[in-house]
Records
---
Amino acid sequence: MLLFAQPWNQQIYGSENVKKVYNWKRDLKMGIYNYEGNTYVAFVDISGFKNMMKDKERVANVVYEFYQSGYKVLDKLRLGEEAQVQGIFVSDCGILFVNREHEEIDEGLQLKRESLNLILEVIKDINLAMIKDDVMLTSSIAYGSLKCTEKLEFHGISKNPFYGDAYLNAFMDNEKSQKKIHPGQCRIVKKTLPKNVIRKGSISNYEHFNLLKTSKDRNHYYFYWMLNNKSEMSKFDKSYSNLESEKYNRMTKLIKGYIPNK
């Protein structure tokens, strides 16, 4: 599957912040280098982006902060010249993957766990940065094969194709899953995970594993990036569910209010 990334430009959105986004991507030359192997891939999407498009200044600011936050988080995790996690941000979404160019993730269970913990840390940090501006994201993570081929870059456009099950599964879970992912949520496609990567005995050794919870249908692990400890999960779930119910009840009341009395 091909992905074509084009930086936002001032002609489209006529905003100073959009111009900043364009120059920021161009000047930093954030290319994605060749990668082939098994790894974790995250597909991250801005919630409610279509509604934001009604306000050009708002959407320009949101995209700018999204790109900037992503760069800062990934740059923080660099080991010298090597990026532990690579990513590309296109319009309202980001594709991130753990880069183990000199290590084969398939070879060891410990490395698989470290890599999963690492991408969860990235997801948490990007979400924390965006929620400060009242922007929520949805994030889906999958493990599997990934091939990313560096392509030629021209002024204003770059081409980076992504192939493989990991990218496809993460994208499909976020965009096309029968079980809809809601704003603010991050989840892992359970069926794609390496065997025994998440076990009770290993949870305490990896910071973010403590904030994982199996879904009722057992198809996902949900990552509670916004919580400090596992004991808060039940209270959070109840409060989140109540918000969904209130929204449904308000919509029902609105519709009923327009139905003519017989």
---
Amino acid sequence: MKPQLLAAAALLCTMCTGASAQNALLFEACGRMPAAQRTECLEAAGAATRPGAKPAAKRSPPSAALPVIGAPLDLAGAIAACEYLIPSLKDRRDGAAEANNLASPEVLGVHYAAVDARPDAICIVNRQSRKVTVWKFGDVFADDNALAYLGYRAAIRQDVREGRYADFVARAKERLTHDFRDPLAVQYRDLYIGEGDGEPTLCGEFNGKNRFGVYVGFRRFYITEGNPGQTEPSGPDWDPNYYFNRTWPAKCGTRRAQVE
């Protein structure tokens, strides 16, 4: 254990309050340290927060919790919490194992082994809240803003799964048409929620007006949360190898719910 690393981590926790119930913030603080020191700091924090060690302060960053909190957190529950926040981890589940050197009474760490060209990853979950407090992908740590955004995306996925997609559809339409001359005149047909790459996707066809006020014809489109969307090329630009045509089956091939 490196006391100087823990001391440095504590200095980074400028908003820390409380006592033994707040040990897990050490892990978050380590994530803010220079890359060369982070792994060693995380291991030191794991040792310091085990029974008998001096407690440290904890502040839970804004991140998504699983909808249901049940029995005491085990490895399966921690993996579920990590995959709820980061769906792309699902295809790496076979390489997931408990990170014993990062465990404490407050948190449970999951190590995802490197696969193909993707580096290994660390996901640390608070045992009580089921919130992801540290997310490390290779040498990159997610900060509070990144965890908050991942939580926001997770909440949207949860809403859509449970049939609450009206807000998602309204935001998607607004992003799709924000540069149109007359966005209120845009027509839609065959709108549905697709399940592209694990993210809710609004798929369908739209018809907008040109600068002469004439409708130009329906074209397919798809759009996910936070992205500008992709539209089908038309006329001489149409090509089966165009990005839209290549990605449409993966994005919109599976229908979750019909919208319009």
---
Amino acid sequence: MDKFDINSLGIVLALVGAVLAALLGGIGSAIGVGMTGQAAAGVVSENPPLFGKVLILQLLPGTQGIYGLLIAFTMSIDDFVISYFTAGSMCRRFSLEEGIVFDPPYTEVTLKDDEQGDPLISERLCIMKGLLAPGQYDEALGILVKVGEVLKKELAGMGLTLIDFKIEVGYDENGKMYVVDEITPDIWRVRDEQGNIPNQIDCAKLILEKI
């Protein structure tokens, strides 16, 4: 197979991937909305005051379709991470105690590479590998900080302290950057008023109780 054929194959595979992302995301979203809708209808018929809470659960599956559509025309690059306190793997990697405050917050970017354990990657390497154009690294970190400020404020109102979180950032064919991730307990780590760090499911329950 000559060079032209290899390049053509790459374009075809990229287009197939985009179509599948949009199609499967839409199908999964439709199935999820239908399932939660049936369950929500039963709950509300027995306890109407719960309408607001089940509505949120009804909306969550719908985001999968939007996420799939975004992936269809954006390229997800890396995980952009921001930490307000030391915790978890950071403490192990850098021999730090838990709970040290970062002021200003500490940011880092990891490369999506399961074989290498998602290593940290610098702006220079992102540009060398063709993952980001000059200026996009800092732009993505700026988006990360802005999302963090909103999250901190909203979670603090529920008695939760944001420890750290990560999001995926991508860009379209014009270089415009987007958050291509869901803002759910799956991306963050928080501490409750008792000093406990709840898992994703418990955190979701805590939030629903406080809405």
---
Amino acid sequence: MESTADLGLFLKNQNHIFALNFRDGPCEKREKMEGILLISHGEMAPGMLDSARMFFGDEIPQLEAVSLKMDMTPEAFLQNLKEGMMKVDTGEGVLVFADLLGGTPANLSAQVLSDNVRVVTGLSMTMLLEALAARMAGVVDLSSLMETGKNGIVCLNKLMAQKQKEREERAAKERPGKNSPQQRTESETVLTGESREI
């Protein structure tokens, strides 16, 4: 069984799973950068914002979260959504991550769609971290972002089983086989009483 350290290194090296550029220390602000707004039912959005700080530091510029509370009206949430967008938008537009396609937060975000406001549903930690890293390098490509989100959904049991299988196959190739030069030489020594090159 692989240790958690081995697992972490393995996942980190899988570019198709995490195409991330994690930074040590605070997340620096570019001169022009698209704002990111997280919206969700309950505390999912604020929780993901808090988790992102573990990777990008406590002060992540132009990143906010808005929650739909149990007793909140759609009108109140929409107002909070608009205020959140204003906080993160410095003129480069806003990328809104909604938790659920067809849910109230996503449905209400449709009212603020524009050329400068992009909404992506199915918010995941993989997508958020990818977006934060990508916007520091330039424009966030949605096609790449969503593909990264899909590739981040895996069955860890199968992933680890595949890794173990690959290791066993490599080990089998590295072991001397019955037709290897070394084994053939040893066999001829036994039969002839002398060793010679094959």
